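Archive maintenance. Older records in this collection stored only the sequence; we are now back-filling the structure field for every entry so that each record is complete. The fields below show one back-filled record exactly as it appears after the update. Entries are processed alphabetically, and TetR/AcrR family transcriptional regulator is next in the queue.

ARCHIVE ENTRY
Title: TetR/AcrR family transcriptional regulator
Organism field: Amycolatopsis nalaikhensis
Length field: 200
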Amino acid sequence: MAGRKQFDGEVVLDAAMVQFWRDGYADTSVDDLSRATGLNRSSLYSSLGDKESLYLRCLDRYATRYGDRYDQALSGAAEEPLRAVRAFFDVTLRRIADPGLPDGCLIAQTAMAIPALSPAIAGRAVRALDTQRARLRAALTAAKLPTCEADDFAVHLAAVNQSMAVMSRAGASRRQLRAIVDVSLGALAQALHRNRGPRP
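Back-filled structure field:
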């Protein structure tokens, strides 16, 4: 049919996302995106917008994909908070260990580049980080941590999660990353025990 797109938009967005994830926004050119997606410049612009618009779409795609997995991991926090938070970190560790994906985290590397990025991209990265803290806060509140401790642990656990992605790019081993998770879970276990109410 005349005018019908001859490519799979989902596949193209994934290819663009991996390209940005691997090299970052500044170091990815339109030619890089063209090679990664198999689309020429004209098709890229007409179908997906300019480089910034495409990056925003990729950030949203990344945040939704892994956000859904984090939400699923934390869904049992009210009953088994430590197991749920470990499952949350396992989402990141599996992503880091996947040989088919770049190292690190697209959101984390975007956040680190904020001084050089547009307000639109910076704002989207900040919102993604806020969303991760909010999902952790909700899970810890469901686990009956007091509000102030739930807030503090949400900030801490989100920071640990992002730092693991950064450290993986610097060559941290899986054992080292697991040790980071274990230390954080140990602190959380103490807080949960301290705040555990009397059993009915």
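Update note: The two ends are 67 Å apart (CA to CA). The chain has a mean pLDDT of 92.
Entry marked complete.
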